[in-house]
Structures
1.
Amino acid sequence: PTSDLFLHTFFKQKSMENVHQAAEEDDLYSGYNDFNPAFYSEFENDVGFQQAVRTTYGRRPPIGGKFPGTAIGARPLFSSSGSRMPLASSMGRPVTGAVQDGLARPMSAVKAAGYSSTLTRGSAFDPLGRSRGPAPPLEDTPEEKLKLLEKKINTLIEESCMAQSTGNLQLALDKAKEAHREERALVKQREQSGSADHINLDLTYSVQLNLANQYEKNEMHPEALSSYKAIVKNKMFSNAGRLKVNMGNIYYKQKNYHKAIKFYRMALDQISNAHKDMRSKIKHSIAVVFIAMGQYSDAITSLEDIMSETPNITAGFNLILCYHAAGDREKMKKAFQKLISVPLGISDEDKYIPPNDDTSSKMVIEAIKNDKLSQMERDLKARAEKYITTAAKLICPAMDASFASEFDWCVDMVKNSQYVQLANDLEFHKAMTCLRQKDHNQAKEILKTFEKKDSKMKSAAATNLSFIYFQEKDFDQADKYADLAMSADHYNPAALTNKGNTVFVKQDYEKAAEFYKEALRNDSLCTESLHNLVLQIDVIEWLGVHYIESQFFEKATQYFERATLIQPTQVKWQLMEASCYRKSGNYQKALETYKEIHRKFPENVDCLCFLVRLSTDMGLKEVQEYATKLKKAEKMKEIREQKVKSGQGSTAGGRREGSGGSADSNHSSGSSRGERLSAKMRSLTVSNEPYEADSQKELDASYMDPLGPQIERPKTGAKKRVDDDDDFGDEELGDDLLPE
């Protein structure tokens, strides 16, 4: 307004009257007092401005009046003497520093926290306003409440997914249901508040999809199908048609193959060609359903389409299986070539080699070497190698006449592919196939080519060569290749087992046991070493006697055969083996065994006795020959017994006068276990009654378990049914039954 402008100019003029003027060159405020009177004429000629002045001036608040809520300070007036005079502002605020009505004002023009113009002098200082009490609580707006509910629903979805990942399917389903209820309540509140346009469709889709997925995981297939259908039918959800793949999976689990194919094809129609990987997976699912239905030709069509557009190892392997089921060998070869040419997309292993000796770089490489991505790469590579090896075995069946040539073709194809390391595995499999076909020469020829390979393959080949030579009873070569296998890989349990076997046949049982134990230390599941470790002679003897008592003569035969291998010079094991054949009714096998014993031990009286009896019962013409040999053997036996008795009588006095007592004691303690077990075996066959006699005898109470009391043994009755034919004389069952 004009009055304010005038006052401002007046103040300036009055203040300058008391100011000493500086020199012309030092006037810092030159031109400050210049005023253009044209400004007044402009306002005077402005009708609107003058009308405003006339209508508002009379309603201005009086000078010195209070006008709350303003922060404009009063302008001081300067008198001619230089003193300041408080002057009210145009808004009527009290002048700064003035005292009105006995109230003190702050000396600042800006109102600070805790100060008030109404406070009296000496009042309490309260800058934080604690005397006014706590602030009233903030109330959320309706929109903020809806946002909080959306956040809660998202949290429930996350908790449901986490529960599913940990295998707690029931909790995952409960969380999904709760999220669905909360989402329905949210939509209803949106509609009631008139903000239906702000409904979060992404949240609705996530809730319904998670609920359907949890129904499927809990095998609640009807509920899952109903939920998927609700999503698919909702036109507001874009790309919901892809969920028909999930519906097809459910129908496949229900073995409703026709509906599964229908929904797979419906999903395929709704996916554009730009999504090649998705279309490839759906086509593969269709092929799998056709395979389950036995429609291999339709499956082949789908798989061939996949291999021509987006080849992968799983589809390639399934295509070979379909060709194999259709019996098309040539197409199997073509599919095999496509299979080995599929790129895996796995980076080179050199990335795990540190470029320098930097410790931090090594730590990073060690960390990424075993991360999730590296594990996925290793799994993919292992699966590809498994598929290729299995496909090669299908192409080259073992019984086929062209087995060798077909296998060589597969090996050549693999050598020229990215799976060159599998060529050695295929060659090794070829050698094993030859071994199963009893073609030892071909197997040995192939295995010997691995002597210059890496240590792992070299050890495996040498182990199998040792096994082959051991079966051929070429124990020197078996021992040689066992040593070679151990030198290539000393922790190979199979090599240690074979080495133990070569030592075992040399009757160095303690050393053999050490090799078996070492093999078990390297691999606790090495059943071969565990089995061989229990072959000390006393264990075999106990098991043989046990099975004879239990009337399982075939089982007993196996253990006496092993005892024969351990102690081939002990005739008693071979006699017990022949006795088991006779007790089981296999008289022809018993006769052949007795003849073999007679060939090795021509003066054995017990063997000749049973040869005479069996030949007589079977009406053989060799009866007279064996009877003559028996008489001669009995005479020789009597002569030996007389010499032994005469020798014992001449030395009895010397033993009594010297240290004979301790010798007898040592002999008794060293052979007590053998005597007790010998008595046990003698009690099984002691008379000359017919072969199937039913006489029963009590078990010898002095029998002691050769394995000791710490192992629980199968318990048998106190009575037993035995064959009372004596298989051997008492003099053959002395202290040498168990090794000294």
2.
Amino acid sequence: MEEQLITAEAMILLSATVAIVWAYINFCFVKRVTISGAFSDTGESSALLGDGDGRSASEIVARLTEIYEAIYEGAESFLTAEYRVCTQFVVAFTILVFILIGIGTEWDTTRAGLSALSFALGAFTSMASGYLGMKVAVFSNVRTTVSATPGPEGWTRCFNVAFRAGAVMGFALCGLGILVLYGTAVSYKVFVYPNPDDWVKLTECMTGYGLGGSCIAMFGRVGGGIYTKAADVGADLVGKVVHGIPEDDPRNPATIADNVGDNVGDVAGMGADLFGSFAESTCAALVIGSSFKDFGWSALFYPVVVSSVGVFVCLLVSFIATHFRPVKKERDVESALKIQLVASTALMLPVVYAASKYYLPEQFEIGAAVGNRMVTLYPWSAFVCVSAGVVGGLIIGLITEYYTSHSYAPVRELANSCKTGAATNMIYGIALGYKSAIIPVIVLAFIVYGSFKLCDLYGVALAAIGMLSNLATGLTIDVYGPVCDNAGGIAEMAELDPMVREKTDALDAAGNTTAAIGKGFAIGSAALVSLALFGAFVTRIRYASNDELFANGVNMLEPVTFAFLLIGGMVPFAFAAMTMKSVGLAAMEMVYEVQRQFDQKPHLLDANPAEPPDYDACIAISTNASLREMVAPGALVIFTPLVTGIIFGVNAVSGLLVGSLVASVQLAISMSNSGGAWDNAKKYVEKASPDSALKGKGSDIHKAAVVGDTVGDPFKDTSGPALNIVMKLMAVLSLVFSDTFFYFNKGKGFLNL
């Protein structure tokens, strides 16, 4: 066991170090591409500028630098303002965590203080991850643009720049998350809880880490989502629909804000979201498995070992895209990205099996969720649970792709529905989203049943860990998409040769498809994480109970539990309504501002306007609206379980969590997939020629498709993804404050129900 202990620690620390070093190496590759360097060669310079452009290389370099700096400054100013608000929240909520846990533990200041410290560490790690992702994405987008030179080499260069930019974010976040989480746990063990009998308290203190990450993810997802979609909707409605100017046209005042939004919403927000999933799933598994003290530290931290070996798997698989099967033509792009997901999933299975056999004892026991009995576990049963999550995530991702990619029938049917106008497009799109939830929910149900049957609630937590085991690859692909989207926008604004935009659009289209797969992973993992956290919550209140009230878990047919089951089901709809309305209000402000500039300065619509639009005004609208509107939805999610637990008790919280989980997962899948399908239906129409049945750009069919895409923007990039955090945040918050809830009338709440 001692040999295993050292090896487990070495594996975890080595993986974190390797991930951070590999992120830095990829950054160095990206950094080698310079804006001016692309124009040092006369042939490449003329190809990027286009024939007869009339501008010198120095002029176009200056223009590219100007656009890059405008996007960078916009993203920097927004994240600075957002994180200033988040820092104030973290300071205040850290104090609240200390006070409420102190009350619940009858002023065990050690537990209260360590839980508060874990919360702050999780929050600031999440902020650091989001900020890092934004910096790398903005740094890489213009370098992707200038790498899009003619021929196969151009495909390879621009793909590799965008892919490596994603790898910087993916591996840095995984390495940082593992390092901080494990370093915190080891510090608590060495200095506070060296006795294995106290490891239950140690894991309870660690739950604050997941709570901190999830709180920042909430603000990042909601704030960033409102920012990006306000700019996107405003730019589309006034620019493309009313005035018929192309997407990302430099004459559109909202263009810079739209490109800024891709970085703060799709990169920083997604990074914080998936970091929160990693932290929460790990904390849930540690709390449920805290009875493993008799089997050593390596058995307790087996979930972190799974995440650690996943880093090495993702690193090896990344060479397929950059070295073994490099992209040389358009149709290589989507296959290169999809192979990343399939290969990482396939390679994880034997690696997890080996880790399970090596780090887990031949037989061990865990307390059952229901009844006073023990469940016997084996290394193979833990492997099966992790594998169910790994494979289930891929299945959900591929089903999501089927419903959102224009390579398949559902999106093509949606595009054809635009022939009869925007209304039929909306009807088809909503129906598509509802239908797309069927198979993923069935897959999740099988995973939950099988994992629970084999390893009780610990198995569900392992399935969540498994679904996130190739997180580095998932994040790489997620960040790749916004980088390519920005690269295309920069090419349009700099008026480079159309060939550049065609390349970046092809990269972006593949990124949209794989991003949809990533969203499927995120939703599926969020559902399993939420259920695992609920299991940890039930386990915790059973330990806290000294009577028979909670000996058999939670009875869902208790009147208060059943009543709050319905209330919990309502919360995701209230949250979605608030975030959708927030995007609508911000978009209205953006539309008015863009139209005001066009009305007051009609020359902006000329082919070559004498002066540029006021980009800063649109950036200010998105920034102020997102900071203002993100508070109410966040407060709803954070304070609903707190108030419920203190006033109505743990039975009410149990009903609230189950209702929220069941409603959130269905709503998140349907909204995300409807939005993704509308987006790709619009792209499918745009690819059509004017002589085809779909008529192509500028037609009435295209305008109907743009309306669907505009409505779908907050579906897929604001409300839908943020629902992942709703179910996770409510569950982890209830787990952290379980002792506080139990303090009031032994878990019956202030009203003693």
